[in-house]
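TA notes, week 10

Several of you asked for a full example with nothing omitted. So below is the full record: C-alpha cells for the whole chain, then the designed sequence directly under it. When grading your own attempts, check the secondary structure regions first.
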C-alpha cells in the first residue's frame, strides 16, 4: 500500500517508463498497460517508489503521444481506461505511485478543438489556439526542434492564418490567454486525479503564454496559472504532485517553486550534462559550479535529477564551447546528434564501462534531489542511432535472451530489440542481470534500497566537505536530523589517498560505507584518511 505521507516525493526514487516499449501483453507488437501490470513485481523488487508514464493518450503519434488528440482517453494500442485503473490499483497495492504526463502547452492538430478551430473563425475553439496574419510576431522566441522546424508559425490553408507552435508544426500551442482553455485543463487534471494517479509530470510549462518583446518563456502569467493548478490540487487532492519540465537555468526554474505554492518538484536540467563533463574530465568542478549557481528551494519542494530520459541528452543549458566539447566527446558521429543534444543511452555514452556507469549512478543517487531511472538503464541497455528522431533510445525493454528480448511474442514489433553485441538481448537482459551479483542492475538496486532507507539523501542539507584532491575526488556531506553522510566519488582512473575534514557532528570513529556495509578509512583529530579506488565511491555514515 502507498503511504499517506504527503511529502513522499522528497525521498522517492522515480522510474520513467515508456509503455510502448515495456511489455506487450497481447502479442500485437507493442507494449500496453496490461503489460506494465505484468511487470509491476519486477519494479517493486527493484525498489522504485513512483512510475512516470510517458503519454498514453489517443494520439497520431507524431511526437510519441506528446501530440494529444483526446485528453480523456487511452491510446488504443495501450488499452482502455479500465486497464489504466487496474494499473493504478495494482501499483498502489505494491506501494508504487504513478504520475502521468500532462501536456499543457499544445495539442495534436488532430485534436477536435483544432479541427474545429481551423474550420471556422466563429467557432468558440478558434480562440483555443494562437493565430496571426503576421508570422513576425514573437520573433524573440527560440525554435526548440531546430532540426525539423524553421519557424514557430505555420500557415494553415484551411484557417487562412498562421498558428503558433513551440514544437512540431503538428502540435499547435493552446492559447492560455483564453480562460476557457485554462478551465479545460483544470477539468483534464481533475479527471486524471479522480482516477487515482499521484500527480503529473507537467510537460513544457515555460511556454504556456506569449508576450511580444519577450522570449515567451517563464512569463508571470505562466506562474499564475501553475499556481492556480497547484491550489486546485492542494484543495482537493493533497499529496498529489506537480513535477515540472522547465529546461532552464536554475535561477529561472527557481520561481516555479514559488513560496512552496507552485510546483512540488522540478527537473534540474543543467546538472545533468555537467555530470557527464565531470566524468570525462575526471574533475567535479562543472557539477560544483552549477550547484553553486542553484538557489535554495522551499522545504516542501524537491529537485528531480536524472542522467538520461526519452529525449536527446539536452545541451541547451550549457555554453556554446561546452556544447561543442560535449558533442566531440560524447557524440563523435553525426547520427548521434539531434537538435541541441545527443540521442544516446547511458551505457553507450559511458563506453559500457561498468565502473563509470556505477559512478554516474552514485552521483545521481546522492546529489540533492530525487533520482529518476530511465527504463532499461538499470540493466545497461544500448541504443540504435539508426532509428529516427529519438526512437533510438526508446527500443523494447530487454527482459530475456529470446529474439524480442521477452518484450513481445509477436512476429512484427513496433521496433526491434537491440540485437548487436555488446548491448544485444543475448547478453543484456533482466534475467541475466539479476543472476549476476556484480551486474549494474544489482548495483543500482542496492543504491535504491540505501537511498530509501536514509532520509539524509532526500531531505538532507548539502555541503561540500574540505578535503585534499577535492576536484578529483568529490567529497560532500548530506546532513539530516541526526544523520551525517559523507559521499566520496573518485572521478579518476587512479587510486587516490585523501584526507577529509569532518564536521563537528561526525562522531563515528570508523565510518561505515552504507553500500558495502564495510568500515572504510580511519579518523583522527576530526580528519578522515581514506583510499578511494579508481572510479570508486563511498557513502559513509559519520553519525
Ligand atoms: C518535452 C518532451 O519530453 C518531449 O518528448 C516532447 O517532444 C516535447 N516536450 C513536446 O511535448
Amino acid at each position: 500500500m502507498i503511504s499517506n505521507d504527503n511529502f513522499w516525493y522528497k525521498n522517492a526514487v522515480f522510474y520513467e517508463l515508456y509503455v510502448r516499449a515495456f511489455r506487450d501483453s497481447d502479442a500485437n507488437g507493442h507494449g500496453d498497460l496490461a503489460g506494465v501490470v505484468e511487470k509491476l513485481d519486477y519494479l517493486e523488487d527493484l525498489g522504485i517508489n513512483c512510475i512516470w508514464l510517458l503519454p498514453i493518450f489517443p494520439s497520431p503519434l507524431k511526437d510519441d503521444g506528446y501530440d494529444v488528440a483526446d485528453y480523456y482517453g487511452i491510446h488504443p494500442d495501450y488499452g482502455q481506461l479500465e486497464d489504466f485503473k487496474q494499473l493504478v490499483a495494482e501499483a498502489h497495492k505494491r506501494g508504487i505511485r504513478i504520475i502521468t504526463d500532462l501536456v499543457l502547452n499544445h495539442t495534436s492538430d488532430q485534436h477536435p478543438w483544432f479541427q474545429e478551430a481551423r474550420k471556422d473563425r466563429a467557432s468558440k475553439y478558434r480562440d483555443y489556439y494562437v493565430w496571426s496574419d503576421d508570422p513576425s510576431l514573437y520573433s524573440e522566441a527560440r525554435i526548440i526542434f531546430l532540426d525539423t522546424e524553421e519557424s514557430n508559425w505555420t500557415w494553415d490553408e484551411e484557417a487562412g492564418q498562421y498558428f503558433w507552435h513551440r514544437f512540431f508544426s503538428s502540435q499547435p500551442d493552446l492559447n492560455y490567454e483564453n480562460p476557457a482553455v485554462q478551465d479545460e485543463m483544470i477539468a483534464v487534471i481533475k479527471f486524471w486525479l479522480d482516477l487515482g494517479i499521484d500527480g503529473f509530470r507537467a510537460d513544457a510549462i515555460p511556454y504556456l503564454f506569449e508576450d511580444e518583446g519577450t522570449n515567451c518563456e517563464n512569463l508571470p502569467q505562466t506562474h499564475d496559472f501553475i499556481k492556480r493548478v497547484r491550489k486546485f490540487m492542494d484543495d482537493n487532492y493533497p499529496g498529489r504532485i506537480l513535477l515540472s519540465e522547465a529546461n532552464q537555468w536554475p535561477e529561472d526554474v527557481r520561481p516555479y517553486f514559488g513560496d512552496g505554492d507552485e510546483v512540488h518538484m522540478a527537473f534540474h536540467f543543467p546538472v545533468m550534462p555537467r555530470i557527464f563533463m565531470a566524468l570525462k574530465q575526471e574533475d567535479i568542478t562543472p557539477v560544483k559550479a552549477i550547484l553553486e549557481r542553484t538557489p535554495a528551494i522551499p522545504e516542501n519542494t524537491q529537485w528531480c535529477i536524472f542522467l538520461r530520459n526519452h529525449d536527446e541528452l539536452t545541451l541547451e543549458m550549457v555554453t556554446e564551447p561546452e556544447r561543442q566539447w560535449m558533442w566531440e566527446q560524447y557524440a563523435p558521429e553525426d547520427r548521434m546528434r539531434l537538435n541541441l543534444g545527443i540521442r544516446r543511452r547511458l551505457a553507450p555514452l559511458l563506453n559500457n564501462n561498468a565502473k563509470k556507469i556505477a559512478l554516474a549512478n552514485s552521483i545521481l543517487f546522492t546529489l540533492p534531489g530525487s533520482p529518476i531511472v530511465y527504463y532499461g538503464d538499470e540493466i545497461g541497455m544500448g541504443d540504435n542511432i539508426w532509428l529516427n528522431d529519438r526512437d533510438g533510445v526508446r527500443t523494447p525493454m530487454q527482459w530475456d535472451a529470446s529474439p524480442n528480448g521477452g518484450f513481445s511474442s509477436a512476429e512484427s514489433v513496433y521496433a526491434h530489440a537491440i540485437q548487436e553485441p555488446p548491448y544485444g538481448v543475448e547478453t543484456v537482459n533482466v534475467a541475466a542481470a539479476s543472476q549476476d551479483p556484480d551486474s549494474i542492475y544489482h548495483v543500482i538496486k542496492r543504491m535504491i534500497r540505501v537511498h530509501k532507507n536514509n532520509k539524509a539523501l532526500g531531505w538532507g542539507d548539502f555541503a561540500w566537505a574540505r578535503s585534499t584532491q577535492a576536484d578529483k575526488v568529490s567529497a560532500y556531506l548530506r546532513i539530516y536530523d541526526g544523520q551525517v553522510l559523507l559521499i566520496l566519488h573518485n572521478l579518476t582512473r587512479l587510486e587516490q589517498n585523501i584526507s577529509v575534514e569532518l564536521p563537528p557532528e561526525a562522531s563515528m570513529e570508523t565510518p561505515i560505507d552504507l553500500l558495502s556495509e564495510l568500515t572504510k578509512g580511519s579518523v583522527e583529530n576530526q580528519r578522515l584518511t581514506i583510499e578511494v579506488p579508481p572510479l570508486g565511491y563511498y557513502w559513509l555514515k559519520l553519525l
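The two ends are 31 Å apart (CA to CA). Use that as a sanity check on your answer.
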